[in-house]
Amino acid sequence: MEILSKLFGSEAKVKIMRLFLFNPDMVFEIGAIADRVKEDPARVRKEILGLDRISLIKKKVVGKAEVKNGRKTEMRVTSYGYYLNRNFVYLSALQNFLINAKPLQPKEIVRKVAQLGSVKLLVIAGVFIQDMESRVDLFVVGDNIKKSHLENLIGTLEAEIGKELKYAYFTTADFAYRLSMYDKLIRDILDYPHEKIINKLGL
Questions:
Q1: Which of 86-95, 98-107, 131-140 is predicted least confidently?
Q2: CB–CB of 148/133 below 8 Å?
Q3: Which range marks the domain in which residue 119 is found?
Q4: Which segments of 9-146 does DSSP mark as H helices, in order?
Q5: What is the largest CA-CA distance in the chain?
Q6: With a threshold of 0.90, does the pTM exceed it?
Q7: Considering 40, 68, 100, which residue would you say is the last residue of a domain?
Q8: How many degrees, rounded to 5, is the angle at CA 109 between CA 104 and CA 112?
């Protein structure tokens, strides 16, 4: 992310561009964008105006309200949303670069996930290895991991990457049982493209 931030001017801009590129059919208001990328709304507004000026994104009315003016009733715009301009001249190049480039290096993911607790197995797939057909993007096996902490981490990763992540978490005992029973989800993760970046289970 640091290299991309230097190339594109800021980390916020990279996260916002990824958000639109990964969600080409969605319309986002400023507040929703700020929530998704976990950036200050004022900073988001500044970046959005810049992306709008170069036509990477377009603006549309998403909210109107009735306003009475004497005997007249008018509909006034109350809010705008933004969406990806599919006709942007460099769209294909940006998609290839920002979507296919690894959003986070494995060592950075390890550093973030290791803070959760006793992690025994950490598998990355899906968006992390450019395999969009994968059942999950992140698979965690470990103990003493609080669900709320894991959800907060997933939210942070989603903000950096620009899309919602598919993930699964099992305790070590539950994972061992499911593995012995040839659980379909486990087999779909381990039998298809993935990378084990923490593997203390000897798989």
A1: 98-107
A2: no
A3: 106-199
A4: 11-22, 30-37, 41-53, 91-94, 100, 106-113
A5: 77
A6: no
A7: 100
A8: 130
